[in-house]
Structure formats: C-alpha cells, structure tokens
Amino acid sequence: MTTLSTSDVVRQHGPAVLSRLRRMFGVHADIDDTFQQVMLEVVRGLPGFAGRSEVSTWIHRITLNVAYQRMRRHYRTPGSVALDSENEPPNNDEDALARLERAETARLLHTCLEALPPKKRVAVVLHDIEGLTLQAICEHIGVPLQTVASQLKAGRAELAALMHRALHDQARRTQSPQPVQRGTS
Amino acid sequence: MSRSCEEHRADLMAHLAGDLAALEHARLEAHLAHCADCTALRRVLALGLAAARDVPSPTDAEIERLIQQAQPTTAVSRIRPPLRLLGLVVPLAAAAALAFVVIGTPPPQPPPLPGPVAGLLPPARFSGLVPGGPVDAGPVVLPASGPEPVEAQPSAYVRLVHDGGYRGAVAERRAGETVLVVDQGSVAVSFMGGEGRRLRVEAGDVSIDVTGTRFYVARPDAARVIVGVRSGHVEVHVGASTRTLGPAEVLQIEGSAISNHSSDGDAFVWTDRPFLLSGERHADVHVDPQPPGAELSPSSTPQRAGAPLVSASRNDPDGNARAPQHEATAALLALFADAEARTLAGDVDGARSLYRRGVSDPIFGSKRALAEFELGRFLALTDKDPAAARPLLDRLAHGSSNVAGDAALLLCRLDEATDPCASDRCLAKLAAAGGAIGRDAALLRTKFSALRPGGQLQLRCQTPE
Predict the structure, then answer these.
(1) Cys-Cys with B445: which of A179, B71, B188, B427 at CB 3.0–4.6 Å?
(2) pLDDT band at B278 (very low <50, low <70, confident <90, very high)
C-alpha cells in the first residue's frame, strides 16, 4: 500500500483543495480551518481508501463534503448586508481600482451567500461558482434533481435580492454618511 | 420598486449562466435596456461571480504554512475532528489499541464477513469485531467520552450517541447479529435492520432484541435499566418476561419490577445521520435526512433537558404513535446510500435488492414514489434494463408525485442509446414545457447533442408527423 505523509498529501493536493475552498467561501483566513478539516479527513481516510477512484477525485469529494457541512453550519440570519469599509483607500492606478472592485464585489457576494439558507446556498455555490452540474450536485447531497433545481432557482433569486439590497444600502450610506459618535467606548 | 423589477432580478443569475429560455432571455434583455438599476445589479453579479470563480492560486509560502499546521499532532489538537469521524474512525482505532492492551496480543485479523457486505468492509476497520466469537472475545470498547454526547458508529448498521458516563462494548457475536453491552450510563441507538441483521442489547439482566429501530437504553444505577423507543419496536426480555415497546414508550426495569417511566430528564441528542458502509463512503456520500429547521446532530445544541424525547403529536388517525415522515425519508436515504455503496463495490444484486426493498417495505410507505423512482433509475442506468424501468417510470411520470418530472426526464434518456431522435424529441417536448424540469431537459438535450458523433442531431432527425 502506498504510504503518504500528511505533508505529501498537502503538497500534492493542497493547492487544488485551497483554491476550491476559496472559490466557494472567498479568500479569507477562516478557510484555513476548513482546509485543515479536509486534510484531516484525507489523512485519516487514506488507510481505508480502496483506490476505486483517483486520489484527486476522492479528495475532491471530501472537499465538497466538508464544504457542504460548513455551509450547513455557517448560516447567518438574513439581515442587512454591507460591504466592509476597512479597505485601504485605492490609489489612482486603474488596475488597482479594478482589482479592488473585484475583491470587494467577491466579498459582497460571499457575504450575501452566507445569508442564504444552507440548502439554497449549497445549490448556488456548487452550480454557479464551483461549476458542478445539477446531476452531480444531487448525487453528492442525495436529493432528487428537481429539488436541487428548485433550490438553485430560489437561491439565485434570493441572492440577487440580497445583493440588490446591499448595493442600495451602500449607496444610501455613501450619500448620507452616518454621524460619527463620540464619547462612547 | 415595481414587481416587474423583482421578477427580472430573480432571473438575472440564470441569465448570466445561460440557463434562460430564449423567450425569457429576450424579455429580460428588453427590461435591462431601460432599467439602470437591474443593469447595475447584473454587472455586479457578473463581476462577483467571475471574481469568486477566479481566485488566486495559493502561493508556495501558503502551502508551506498549511503543511506546518497540518502535521497530525498539531491538526488533531487544533481542530476538533468532525464528530462523524470521531464516530467512525477514532473509536475503532481506540478499540484496536484497547483490545491490544487488554488481551495482550494484537487483535486477530477477522475473516471476511459472509454475505454481500463482505466485499465492502475493509477488515482493518473492524479489527475489534470478531465474527463468530463470543461477545468478550474482541469487543470494540467505546471511547471514554467528555461532558458532551459522543457519537460512534461501531458497525455498518449501528450508530450510537452515548453520554459521558457510558461504559460498555459492542461486538459482533455472529454474522448479522451485533451485541451492544450497556454496563452503565446511557446510550441512544439507531439500528438499521433488515436482511437478517439483528441487534441485541444486554444491560445487566435485561436483554433487548431489535430488528431495526431507534431507541435508547439508560442505566442510571446498577439496579435500574430504562428503555425508551423513538421509532420501530423492540422486545425487552427480563427473565422469562417479554415486553414489546413501540414508539414513545418508555419502560423502567428494576429487579423484576417493570413499570412505565416518564422520559422527562432523559435528554439525548438523537443521531439522524445515515448509515454508511465503509471508510471511503463516508467521504463520498452525504445524505441529509434532517427535516428543515431540525438540527439533531451532536454538533448542534443538545436537546433541552426535560424535554420529551418523542413528540406527542406524531399520531395516526387512530391515535397510535408513528414515525414522522422525515424519519421514513431518513431511513430511505440511508437505504439509497447503502445501495449506492454496493453498486460502486460491484455488488449490483445486493444494491438491486435494497432498492426493491425501498419500494416494498411498508415503513417507507410515505416515500413510495421516491423509492420507485430510485429503483427505476437503477434499473435504467445501472442494470441498463429499459424494459424493466419503463413501466415504473411511465407510471411515475404520469402521476402527481414530486418525482414526476424527474421520471419524465429519465424516460427520455431511456431512448438515447437505441433511438436518439426519439430521445431528442422527448427532451424537446419537456424543454418546451418550461420550469425546472424543462431547463434540465434543455441542458440534457444540448449535452447529448454535443456528445453524439457528428455533432448536432437535429440535422439528421426528422420532425415526427
């Protein structure tokens, strides 16, 4: 039996796993824990891995499974969704502005995704970001195709509504900035 | 904001994904032409999706940092392992170690389990179980637990949640019969019966026979044993006396005295997770049997102490308690997972038998249509027996169940190999009907068309008279 150490596994498959998780959850430090969880499952599962599929396929499934669990657990009650204002002010470099806009928009998208009910979020993330087919999603999470399709449709509609609301909130704040409160700790 | 805008916004992501039908697409484009608000939202959605998909590749430094964090000792201490893993892997590993200490020799390599399961259970994962031996020949000692309930899956068909005070063991006495010993503490059990599988629980002088159910056993002290049933039935044997318990029934046995007992105070976190067959499957298959809004897994808030374990409202018209629908769904999905695992392992006959059981077993009555659909799908796609699948799917497609659309789609696919033009016409008809199934039909049509030799099919197919 092939013996792979943890570091071997991380070196060989870690970049793909990390990229996949970043696509699903955004680029931020919280992903490290999810990544570690995937790798932990991989390392623990390796002795029992029967080799019926490619290791990368197997790890891909584990990644999806862990991501799915995370999406089910991390559900933020829908409320106001706002862009963070902690970014460094952009310089006048056009590329830099474009990059900043991309990054902010991606963060807004992920923030809104977190506010979707878990099953809808799973459908939208796996289909519209991760690129899985509906059939692959329904096979992975074990629900009928029609259910996944319904969740995708509802999730897309809710996501668009949340994004719309967030953009409007942002525009309102930009037009009438909140007065700075003083004297509070 | 006009309703029209709301409706169009709901279609924006489908539009960006190219999933909108031509007519809807044209309508949306017409709306976008004069609605700056929706146009701005489309741009942001498109930008956000593109940015989310196109993430930067991890740098070498990041990977090195993660390698440092992912060393086994660090990883185990830093990260709370998923309880599902704790249940499946850690107890068995711990059991192997404990068995080694107690017996003084490494546990014997068990012979393959007889029957169709044999090919699916790697022996290493059941090193603590000794088929054919007595209970104490090689028990899996469940791990000493902390203050919170611990979930464990000591065999393919038994899943446990036990409290911190539980002491006991699990062993396979002979093929198909698992024995769970409860020396002290409390343990909630989900057992998936069928195909001659049995579970026997031994708690002091009390033994409990189970053929497939969810129940719990508690030994608050050496003299008392409490048995409560959530779904299914169990037979409780005390000396020569036998009592059958059904859902919501709780029995207290103290010496030879048997009495009804309130479940108040027996707070358990019930496990609704599916039964899985092997180490690999746990990663491959996820089945979500939990009803919306109900979080019963150990990772969620434990059930409130004092709350009734079984809802009193789950009665049939005659007033008899029965398993709620979601439990039938959970059991059925577990059956599907089991069947899928067998299919992947090459045990097609075993898988077919399970799918047929899903249709015939009255316990799944409320989910009959889903069970029939899965059987139809298996017959069509795995058995490649369209003659057997067609009547089943045809009936479902013309019925009113929520799998009617999926059955209609599958019916179209039956013709793909033998009569691609008929398949294409069938899909076109579904696609024209619209809705979610229509969209899937359109996607399938495109996919099949692209996969066929020669490319576009419609050039060769004649429109039917």
Answers:
(1) B427
(2) very low
